[in-house]
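#lab-general

N.A. 3:47 PM
ok so I finally got the sequence cleaned up, no stray characters, all 109 residues accounted for. can someone with queue access submit it? mine expired

B.Y. 3:52 PM
send it over

N.A. 3:53 PM
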Amino acid sequence: MRFYGIPFEDRVLEIVERITDGEWLYEENGNREELSAEEVKKKLLELVNMVKSWKQESRHIPAGTTFFFVSTPDNPQAIKVYDLSSLGCSSSLSPARWKVYKKEFEGQL
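B.Y. 4:20 PM
back already:
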């Protein structure tokens, strides 16, 4: 599955609005939770607000720093979100701290 970096949180919110149905899984630090599409949207909104606050609070994080990676932005099936520990990794990223994906992709990310 190919992921596309989305550097601006407002664009991430536009993509999140395209989530309309399905059974979703939310992973954080190895813990997994099954959520509805509406619950996933709320979780992602929380993550977007958290990343926005990181960028506002630290002048060392450029505005275009990418924390969100989305499969097929027109029809999102999976989203990976990285945290501050991934900054400065130019060749590879540490595992995503948060993952949100449709249940049918379980075990594929």
